[in-house]
Amino acid sequence: MEEALKKWNFEGVDGSVDDMERASAYTVRGVVCSIMDSLNGDDMRTVVRLGHGDPSNFPSFRTCTVAEDAIVDALRSAKYNHYSVKNGILPARRAMAEYLSRDLPYKLSPDDVYLTVGCEQAIDVILTVLSRPAANVLLPRPGFPLYEARAACCSLEVRHYNLLPGRDWEVDLEAVEALSDENTVAIVIINPGNPCGSVYKHQHLEKVTKMARKLRILVIADEVYNHLTFGTTPFVPMGVFGSTVPVITLGSISKRWFVPGWRLGWLVTSDPNGILKKSGVAKNIMGYLYVSANPATFIQVKLNLSFLEDIDDDMDFCIKLAKEESVIVLPGVALGLKNWIRITFAIEPSTLEDGFGRIKHFSLRHKKKQ
C-alpha cells in the first residue's frame, strides 16, 4: 500500500504544473472534439465542418501536382533516405535563401535559414531560445493558443495585446507600447491572421517594424505563405518585414489564402432579412453576426447574443448548432476572444452553401421573439 501511494519524482518547470494546465486548457483540437461529442447521432445529414482548419481534406484544395511530383522524385532518388541535418538539408536552405533575398536589400546565405518540421517545432525552438528569467513575450488576442502552452513550458511570461476588429484586425500599437518593458524579448505577428483571416497592408507592417525597432524587441513573423502547395504554382511571394529590425519568420504549408469574393456572397442567402451590408468595415448577417471586412480563408465573426434566445455564449452556440444542424464552427473562447466564432471558407463550395443554409435555419429557430 505504501509503495502504491509513493509520488512520482517529476513535475513541471519550477513546479509550474498549474500554469501549463491553464495554458493548455483550450486547444483548437480539444474544443472541436468536445463540440463533435454534441452531434446528434440520429441526424443522417453529412456533418459540415466549418471549424476545420485543414483545406487539404477537400478535393478543390488538393496539393498541386508540381509539389507531389517533387516529393515522389526525391523519394525515388534514394538521396534522402537518411537522417537529416537538424537545420534542414542544404539544397532546401539554399533555395529558401535565394527566394527570400528577392525582397531584401542584401543577400541571405543558406546559413541564415533554419528549417523546422512545421510551425509548431519553430515555435518550440524560438521560445526556448528566448526564455530567460523574468522575460516576457507579447502575443495577439485573438491568436493561436499553442504559443501560450509553449511559453508556459519555457517559463516565459505572456502578455496579450489586442487586435482591432474595427480596423481589419490591425495591431493595437499603443497597447503594445504600454505592455512592453525592459524584459520584453519579442512580439508575435500572425499574418495572414488565424483566426481573423485578415491580411495586413504594407503600411501597417512598416508601423509594426518601426515600433519594434523603437522598443528593441524581436519580431516573430508567423507568416503562412499563400498557396505554398495549393494552386497552380508551388510557391508565391512571401511578405517580409524591413531589414531595420530583427525578424524571425515562421513559414509552413499554407492553410490560409484569399477567398474569392463570391463565397462571401453566400452569407447573403443565409440572411433572412437581407440586411448584409456591402460597404464599410462591418457587415451584419442574420441580425446577430458581425463580420469584419476582407475575410481570407478564415473569418472571425462576433455574436450579438441579444438577438438570440437560449444561447448563453459562443461555446453554447457552437454546441447547440452541432446538435441541431450538424454544423461545426469554432468558438472564439478557444482563441482568446469570447462570444466570437471562427468560420472557414476552405471547404467544398456545395458543402459551404449547405452549411450556411443550416446556420440560417438555426438562427430562425433561436431568434428572440419581438
Tally the helices: what do you get? Answer: 12
What would you say the CATH architecture of the largest domain is? 3-Layer(aba) Sandwich
What's the CATH C level of the largest domain? Alpha Beta
The amount of helix comes to 25-40%
Could you give me the name of the CATH homologous superfamily of the largest domain? Type I PLP-dependent aspartate aminotransferase-like (Major domain)
Q: Cα-atom Rg, whole angstroms? A: 22 Å
The secondary structure category is alpha/beta
* Residue windows where pLDDT falls under 50 for at least 5 positions: 225-245, 251-285
What oligomeric assembly is this protein in? single chain
Question: How is this structure best described in words?
Answer:
There is one protein chain. Strands 4-3-2-5-6-7 form a six-stranded mixed sheet, with helices on both faces. The protein has a five-stranded antiparallel sheet with strand order 8-9-10-13-12. The longest helix has 18 residues. The protein has two domains: 157 residues, Aspartate Aminotransferase, domain 1, CATH 3.90.1150.10; 186 residues, Aspartate Aminotransferase, domain 2. 33% of the residues lie in helices and 15% in strands. By secondary structure, the protein is of the alpha/beta class. α1 runs antiparallel to α6 and α5 packs parallel to α6.
